[in-house]
Amino acid sequence: GDGRLWGGRFEGGPAEAMFALSRSTHFDWRLARHDLAGSRAHAKALHRAELLTDDELAGMLAGLDELDADVASGAFTAAPTDEDVHGALERGLMERVGPELGGRLRAGRSRNDQIATLIRSYLREELAGVASDVGELVGALHAQATQHLGAPMPGRTHMQSAQPVLLSHHLLAHAWPLLRDLERIADLDRRLAWSPYGSAALAGTSLGLDPEFVASELGFDGSVANSIDGTAARDLVAEAAWVLAQIGVDLSRISEEVIVWSTVEFGFVTLDDAWSTGSSIMPQKKNPDVAELARGKAGRLIGNLAGLLATLKGLPLAYNRDLQEDKEPIFDGLDQLRVLVPAVTGMVATLTFHTDRLAERAPAGFSLATDVADWLVRQRVPFAQAHEISGAAVRYCEERGMELTDLTASDLPAIDPRLGADVLEVLSVAGSIDARDGRGGTARVRVAEQLDEVAHRLAEL
Ligand code: ARG
What we know:
Elements: H1 16-22, H2 25-28, H3 32-48, H4 54-73, H5 85-102, H6 111-147, E1 152-157, E2 160-166, H7 167-192, E3 194-195, H8 211-217, E4 222-223, H9 227-232, H10 235-261, E5 269-270, H11 289-312, H12 327-349, E6 352-353, H13 355-361, H14 369-378, H15 383-399, H16 412-415, H17 429-435, H18 444-460
Parallel strand pairs: 3-4
Antiparallel strand pairs: 1-2, 5-6
Helix pairs in contact: 3-4, 3-8, 4-5, 6-7, 6-10, 6-12, 6-18, 7-10, 7-18, 10-11, 10-12, 11-12, 14-15
The chain binds arginine.
Arginine is lined by residues 24, 28, 84, 111-112, 115, 321, 323-324, 327.
Pathway: Amino-acid biosynthesis; L-arginine biosynthesis; L-arginine from L-ornithine and carbamoyl phosphate: step 3/3
GO molecular function, one term: argininosuccinate lyase activity
Catalytic activity: 2-(N(omega)-L-arginino)succinate = fumarate + L-arginine
């Protein structure tokens, strides 16, 4: 009952530095309530195998409930002498029900199957929380896109002016990757829903315990088919770390744009006061710290994934203590996203878009050149030539310090005789946008459909 789960074959306790290295309660304590849920299910499995009497089961469950309440209230915590969450909780149970009954719980299980189960149930719960936060962010993007349906902006490739697009279309282009992240979480949950309880140390459970029973008690879909895999595999933790890193990358992409858009040179957005910070020396400053922290934390989330994969590489079967190193990176990733995603949502929801400025810049940088080429194609000019002629129009304008929208009928013959005066009708941002009316395109009708599609997808996930 001293929180140590082994020792019979040892003459003395561990060296101080050995214990300091081994100890994990400072990070695995957060799994305590999941461990208690596992213990309740395991106690019932012991009872079904007639290894606990009715009275013993009742006493054990009462002790576990009491311990759970004390863990929840903070009345019971890990002691400095506890090696890990499992040992601490066994100590707590023995303190409540006595060493005789408390000492019966560990039969037929190992910390190896315990921890493998706990990390799965913990991830299932936490990822559901991340998914709900990401859903809010998709909602914020959708709300901004709805509010600005019809507002044009300059679309870019290579960061250079490309073609005008609708601001809504652009904002929804950030919503789709996040919807896919939600799909990833839902999909990963199906793989996390297999309980390793009953794998014991590696070879499976003896004593007639029923892993399928424990799995269903814990809300899993079933128990693992291979006890060695069940205790040794952490690919699911790595997959979770990847999903978190991918969400970080998706937030970082949004954030980079907000950072650029909020510069005086772009002037596309203004950040809300509540979601920006000032400078201690420069009175004029309003800094996009939320966006910068998102960009920075993406690096950290990627590092967590890379570190975890490096830990897993080259591990022989079955359990190895290296696997204890899976926890801090994934816990850190979850902690970071739980503070980050709501802040990015707040920032996005309160962005003020300067639609006049966006509209003014939409045709800049000759972004209607493709429309000139497309007009020529409709006049049966082969596209290769149309491309040349439109390029000549760009050069003509560039030499004279004008935009394509400044062209008049008198300029056209000097550029190419095939440019009729009708071409001037397609030289408008609205015309260019609405011409792109194939599915997925930036035409207003398509973007309106897309708004419905995003809302529908979000409701499904
Ligand atoms: N703290 C360990 C981990 O996180 C729990 C399993 C320990 N098992 C063992 N045989 N030492 O992986």
